[in-house]
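Hi support team,

I submitted a single chain yesterday and got back a structure, but I'm not sure I'm reading the token output correctly. Could someone confirm the output below corresponds to the sequence I sent? I've pasted both exactly as they appear in my results page.

Thanks,
R.
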Amino acid sequence: MITGYNTDVKCGDVTYHVQTEDKGLETPVILSLVYSGGAILASKRSPYDDLVASGFDEKELADRLQRQHKLICAAVHAGRIEELKKLGAKEAALAKDGNRPQVEANAESDAAIQSAVQAVKDESPDRFSISTDEQGESELTVVLSGGRELRGGRSVTLRLNVLRRGPNGQERVPDAKVTVKTLSTAFPPQSTFATTDDRGAVAVLISLPDFKEGRAAVLIRAEANGEVAELRKVVLPRRS
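Hi R., thanks for writing in. Yes, this is the structure output for that exact sequence:
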């Protein structure tokens, strides 16, 4: 399975979380979800049966996944949540009827999204900071709220939600064990441990070591009932 992406996107006074992942060859679909406060607002599913039938090119799949993620981020940033909701509802209706959206339909959907972001055409989707989510086949998801950048030498509070796919959509996971580990080439690793409350939420205060050179990241790991979800977020060096 190709690694997915998680990005916090701010529009007005609201910060949305966009998650895109490959569901794997057994279910060849690229799935993007748009969250706000732990609730799913919109989704986009793009099957890649054509890629599997043609012999499967992992690089092409990675390109499609990244492209879809950037398109969704750009649409959210442009304030086009309602358009995304309508596209997701249309796809869900087709799936309910047993007519799975095909490549042509997804090309039309992509065109609609691209049209929706023309109002902010000067904002390149490449400007979004993308963190990888390596949760693999797990049904568990860890979501980081807020789009604030992380920089060395600061103390920050990470507000996290742990969710699980259930029969009625995303469900909050209480008592999930959360580990926040700070990793870097410039300083030794540090770990902080916490547990989600009855709403599947937890706030973790961490201090980011000061550094000017090298690379650093925060690795967030959630565990519940044998399932694991991970999320990485880059830590930037302290400003001079």
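A quick pointer for reading it: Residues 184 and 216 are 4 Å apart (CA to CA). Let us know if anything else looks off.

Best,
Support desk
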